[in-house]
Design a protein that fits this description.
The strands form 2 sheets. The chain has an 8-stranded mixed sheet, with helices on both faces. Helices cover about 35% and strands about 25% of the residues. Helix 4 crosses helix 5. The radius of gyration is 21 Å and the shape is globular. The protein starts with 5 loop residues before the first strand and ends in an 11-residue tail after the last helix. A hairpin with a 5-residue loop joins strand 11 and strand 12. It is of the alpha/beta class.
């Protein structure tokens, strides 16, 4: 199979975790494509399966208890499912890198930040240790940290600076795909804005593609070209940034928008999505969002919805549109 202009192509990915309490259905038939140079935002609540999907790209699903039941993952024309551990060690860092969720725990506390950056360079590039250290200093300065702090330890850095170090490590070998897992969650709003701006600049400089995992639609607006909404292990709506923000189709996506404070109307009350996400140990037969949906029908309880396409870029999995593609949500966005 040829990816054409895609750096990543995931087809029908199914992942589960076998535990003493039962089987967790974490990812249930996910399909994702990312074009070269583009950023896809993967949006959803905690437990939706976003991080599990990302870890599968690096073949880092813990086994046991994790198990990739089926699916295909092509990364830069490499069949990840068939790659052995030796090949994956070369791929990680060189073809794909990941910025993990918490910068506080992503760094080794007893190794200097310079050595942690240099290690990635030394492993993947044919350079001497001195050259690796020089490159590490350059990477540190590129993310806005003075090079003379190379020999300091993670505890000597603030949360925002630790995240910059993590970004420097991820970008040290100029990967073709960068996976960013909630990269701004642990940071205050001002630092968030600085980190997002930095990531935009570096993405442009290195001409990378990016998978941005987040629950924050504000982050999506800042950095993403395309958006995939994930719920209970499935992509339930996907489209371009404009498709999702201007022509919202799925009731869950609408609920995410209604949960955002309105800065123009301070008196407007938030409208949270009622209930909790379905138990991943016991997902319903039909639509997983059914019990929380204001538009639920009888068919929603028994049959999983099929994809309905509104354009080449925009689809939704929802029974509301199977019979009537012109259906509009009561508070549908224009």
């Amino acid at each position: 199979m040829i990816l054409n202009n895609n750096i990543l192509n995931i087809e029908d990915l199914v992942i589960r975790y076998v535990t003493e309490d039962g089987i967790v259905e974490a990812v249930n038939g996910v399909n994702i494509k990312i074009e070269k140079g583009k950023t896809l935002g993967l949006v959803g609540e905690t437990g939706a399966g976003k991080t599990t999907t990302a870890l599968s790209i690096l073949k880092l699903i813990p086994d046991p208890p994790g198990e990739v039941v089926k699916g295909n993952i092509l990364l830069d024309n490499i069949d990840i499912m068939k790659a052995n551990e030796s090949k994956m060690e070369k791929i990680r860092g060189e073809v794909v890198s990941m910025i993990f969720q918490d910068p506080m725990t992503a760094l080794n506390p007893v190794i200097t930040v310079g050595d942690q950056i240099a290690e990635a360079i030394f492993i993947h590039q044919k350079v001497t240790k001195k050259e690796a250290n020089n490159k590490a200093k350059e990477m540190l300065e590129m993310v806005g940290i003075p090079g003379n702090r190379l020999n300091e330890y993670p505890h000597q850095f603030s949360g925002g600076m630790k995240q910059r170090v993590v970004i420097a490590i991820a970008l040290s070998c100029s990967p073709k795909l960068l996976i960013a897992d909630e990269p701004t969650t642990a940071l205050d709003v001002t630092i968030q804005a600085q980190v997002l701006e930095l990531m935009r600049e570096l993405k442009k400089k290195f001409q990378m593609s990016m998978l941005m995992i987040t629950h924050d639609l504000g982050v999506v607006v800042e950095v993403c070209d395309d958006v995939a909404i994930m719920y209970a292990g499935r992509i339930i709506e996907q489209g371009t940034l404009e498709d999702i923000f201007r022509s919202t189709k799925h009731p869950y996506t609408e609920g995410l928008f209604n949960s955002i404070p309105n800065i123009e109307d301070r008196k407007a009350k938030l409208k949270p999505i009622r209930g909790l996400m379905s138990d991943p140990y016991d997902l319903p037969k039909g639509c997983a969002f059914c019990d929380r949906c204001d538009y639920q029908m009888e068919i929603c309880k028994t049959k999983k919805p099929e994809k309905v396409y509104f354009s080449d870029t925009h689809f939704v999995e929802c029974h509301l549109y199977n019979e009537n593609k012109d259906f509009k949500l009561n508070n549908g966005r224009k």
